[in-house]
Amino acid sequence: MSEPPGAAVSLTEAPPSATDAPSKPLAAQRVLPLRRPGRWIATAVVLVLAAQFVHGLVTNPFYQWDRFGYWFLRPTILDGLLVTLEVTAYSAVLGLLGGILLALARLSKSPVLRAVSWIYIWTFRSIPLIVILLFLYNFSALYQTLSVGVPFGPAFFTFDESRLATDIVVAVVGLSLNQAAYAAEAVRGGILSVDQGQHEAAAALGLPKGYQFRKVVFPQALRSITPNYVNQLIDLVKATSLVFYVSLLDLFGAAQTMGATYPGDIVPLLLVVTVWYLILTTVVSVVQFYVERYFARGATRTLPPTPLQKLRTAVSDLRDRVRREAAV
Amino acid sequence: MSTETLQIVPAAVEVHDVHKWYGSHRVLDGVDLTVRAGEVTVILGPSGSGKSTLLRVVNHLEKPEIGYVSVNGELIGVRKQGDHLKELSERAILAQRSNIGFVFQNFNLFPHLTVLENVAAAPVATGKLDRDEAHKLARELLDRVGLADKETAYPRQLSGGQQQRVAIARALALRPGVILFDEPTSALDPELVGEVLAVIKDLAKSGTTLVIVTHEIGFAREIADRVVFIDGGKIVEQGPPSEVLDKPRHERTRDFLSKVL
């Protein structure tokens, strides 16, 4: 070749001018990972701050951890926790069912159903939950009896509203009405995310309409409904603390009442409430992970690993790395 | 094949003066087509010519504004009422579709169900077979399309060619009198086209009525009893492949063939 020296780059031979030319062929040379000092410094700073925070949390007498221990498993608190769980469970199920109906109405071909659903969602997303609850609480004064019968015609059953509307019913109805409005949008989004081809394939196979929804569309929609709905579920767990204002003693209500009786224990009582809510949210998140994993069947070629599987892979990766380092 | 469960009685299809608009755009402009029982018809035409719409009208995925389709003399999606045609209920239309198989370009398998469940779903859902019978039938059909070992896989774990073969088995599970193919190999890598065409060829030999929209001219020549060339929502010409493909009479057919061959 007649090119001037230095212009041509040879891939097979090291440039003759280089003094530190590799003695072994390149393939056998170990590549040293890039060192990242900035990352180490940032890690150290964050660790120091975190340690400081935890130290303060443990040693500051303001938190009164002994009183926390006293209150954490008190029957009053546990009764409140039970009420919270009960109200959450009923409202979550009723809210989801209502949300599915509202979503189907909004996606239906009937303009009346679409409008009614839209107005419902608009109304209940607009009114603050506390207002809905207080409204329902005073409902029995507005409508003293509830009847089942022909609209504008004779009634078959009549209920005395004040007997039907116990505190827990008011709380569940209020939270469900609110939850359904938000769930409707999560469900609608999930249904819209299912490919049009799936509807067509189901229709072309002549699958009955109900079967199409239950076995083809909804299971696929659930994959994107789950994260959105769980988000609302976590909101719901905390929103139950509002039922205290319709004189129901939930977890927060129980702590609040005890706090009124023992004013010196307010902070430990709030900590008790916080830790219980943290536990509830954790449980919901763990359940969410496995529910999402279940609905990922078929959507991805391999399922996402469980935390245990992740840990195992991490350990074996580390072992491999140590072995490699030792070998060099 | 060998077992009685796979017996299919081929059906005849008649398309009578079908017109179809999308808004102000006329997609089908008076299409008449007769497909005899057991015949293999290939529909060719440039993109946007209305060939897919025609196929979708046959199983009433699209409703024609004028005209009708009948399969073995039974009107599809409508019934006669005096001088008029009246739309059938959705339930009745769904029931009619079990005699009309449809294979999509993009397979449209149900991704959350296993291969076996995909094939067995329709006979169970429509009450034709119980679960065990449907699974037995599904296994036979998967064997027929060469995928007996894939029954527990999910569709996304399969190649495109395998997915399309599952989709064909799924369409066969209702033992339809006619099977419609909407560009069954257009979404496939070239080296996977052959395996799907082989399955369709096998069906053609077994005497099932097939209507196939495709761009595979060589395949059309090989298996079609009749080739239909459609353009601008109208049938331009039709006849045996030796005429339409080798001695086209119309300028537009010649023009189209010169571009795709």
From TrEMBL, chain B:
UniProt subcellular location: Cell membrane
Gene3D superfamilies given in the database record: P-loop containing nucleotide triphosphate hydrolases (3.40.50.300)
Membrane topology field: Peripheral membrane protein
Positions of the ABC transporter domain: 13-257
Pfam families reported in the protein's UniProt record: ABC_tran (PF00005)
Keyword Transport among record annotations: yes
PROSITE patterns named among the record's database cross-references: ABC_TRANSPORTER_1, ABC_TRANSPORTER_2
Name of this protein: Amino acid ABC transporter ATP-binding protein
Keyword line: ATP-binding, Cell membrane, Membrane, Nucleotide-binding, Transport
Entry keyword Transmembrane helix: no
InterPro entries: AAA+_ATPase, ABC_ATPase_HisP-typ, ABC_transporter-like_ATP-bd, ABC_transporter-like_CS, MetN_ABC_transporter-like, P-loop_NTPase
Major site of localization recorded for this protein: membrane
Molecular-function annotations in GO: ATP binding
